[in-house]
Amino acid sequence: MELLNTVTVEEAKNKIREAFGGFSLKQENISILDAVGRYLAKDIIVPIDVPGFDRSTVDGYAVISKDTFGASESVPGFLKYKDQIEMGKKADVTVRTGNCYYVPTGGMLPEGCDSVVMIEYTEVLGNDICIQRPVAPGENVLKKGEDLKRGDIIFKKGHKLRPQDIGMLAGIGTINIDVYEKLRVSIISTGDELVSPTEDLKLGQIKDMNTYSLSAASIEDGCNVIERTIVKDHRDLLKNKIEECVKNSHIVLISGGSSMGNKDFTKDVINDIGSPGVFIHGVSVKPGKPTIVGKIGTTALFGLPGQPVSALVIYKIFVSFLINNIYYNEEVINQYIEGEISVNIPSAPGREHYVMVNIREEIDKTVIEPVYGKSGMLSMMAKARGYVKIKTNQEGLIKGEKVRVFLF
Ligand SMILES: Nc1nc2c(c(=O)[nH]1)N[C@H]1C(S)=C(S)[C@@H](COP(=O)(O)OP(=O)(O)OC[C@H]3O[C@@H](n4cnc5c(N)ncnc54)[C@H](O)[C@@H]3O)O[C@H]1N2
Ligand code: MOO
């Protein structure tokens, strides 16, 4: 009897990190308009103070705060109105005791003042402004360099750029940046039963899902999917296809054929093609136990279990992990929310168990409910908001226990 020689999830991650530690990626200089979802190849050092001058955060009157102390609606203070500061122009004047200038939100503060009274708390009385509320020093002011200081590192190498980051880069005048080239990913789905989603089904056939879910996951991770294909369960056809993909891909994902069936060739074919070959076959995780990981030359190969839930869960645990390692992205924090599990969930100790769940908000608590199903049912994952992880040494979860839901 042949049994899988399984490793734990942590052991598998360590082996993957070791195997692909020296991965070298090219860099490219691109416009920030094309950079969302890309990974920075260099730290970004802020070249200018943001803002470059003290700005008002409200529409109001630029004042010396001391001049407003004690002002109230019943006993207002009076300041002489001098002029207005124009938006986008240098404020070439100085506020002196007893004076004030009108300043719009975002306008430059003149010399001498230290705060701004919101217009709602003032009244115009001829040439005077009646101040009905005091302001503290610094109130309603964004100081020079308060947003960002020249010389700060705003983003580190490996950071994955989000829309707010693109805006920030524009704000510091950095419109072209160095990012890592996109990892080239090839996806091969194996199985005699698989047909393209557009084809009519004959009995015994199913529409290919994994090519699509894995492709979407790779794109979300900032990769370029250069090949998507179905290959029949035929050893030579699979070998030819993998060989071709290895030549121009950083990562090859092979879905199906990872288990022990008489048509499960993935492991042997990888070993046939080149070295060092397969270094993991079997991980103590549920779902996804028959996972394969290998390397040919510098290319990473993953034999993902064919069951659609297993394929995507294993992608998230190991393929995403490798991608973030290659891109030097150390900031990965899987978003989670906490809540109480609604029922007992048994788990076989010895395997890290991923349970698909939904989230229900009640008045005083967040309730986490399992979505039942088998790893062949992708609807189980499509209907879920995330998963709960039951650790290897845990026997299960007890109703009411606090759990973390990792969102996907
Ligand atoms: N005797 C054993 N049988 C199985 C074991 C085992 O340890 N011993 N492990 C089971 C587990 S766990 C899993 S997971 C699967 C893994 O199977 P394979 O990776 O060999 O994949 P296939 O047999 O090719 O397919 C499994 C299942 O998934 C469907 N599938 C495959 N590709 C796609 C696709 N692109 N889109 C949608 N669905 C797909 C396929 O039709 C099968 O139903 O093995 C168990 N068996
Ligand atoms: O452990 Mo397999 O990956 O679920 O069906």
From TrEMBL:
First-level EC class: transferase
Reaction(s) this enzyme catalyzes, per UniProt: adenylyl-molybdopterin + molybdate = Mo-molybdopterin + AMP + H(+)
Keywords recorded for this protein, A-Z: Magnesium, Metal-binding, Molybdenum, Molybdenum cofactor biosynthesis, Transferase
InterPro entries: MoaB/Mog_dom, MoCF_biosynth_CS, MoeA-like, MoeA_C_domain_IV, MoeA_linker/N
Domain MoaB/Mog: 186-325
E.C. numbers: 2.10.1.1
Matching SMART domains: MoCF_biosynth
Cofactors: Mg(2+)
Any Pfam family the entry gives: MoeA_C
Pathway(s) of this molecule: Cofactor biosynthesis; molybdopterin biosynthesis
UniProt cross-references to PANTHER family, sorted A to Z: GEPHYRIN, MOLYBDOPTERIN BIOSYNTHESIS PROTEIN
Function noted in UniProt: Catalyzes the insertion of molybdate into adenylated molybdopterin with the concomitant release of AMP. May be involved in the biosynthesis of molybdopterin.
Family (UniProt): Belongs to the MoeA family.
Protein's recorded name: Molybdopterin molybdenumtransferase
Organism encoding this protein: Alkaliphilus flagellatus
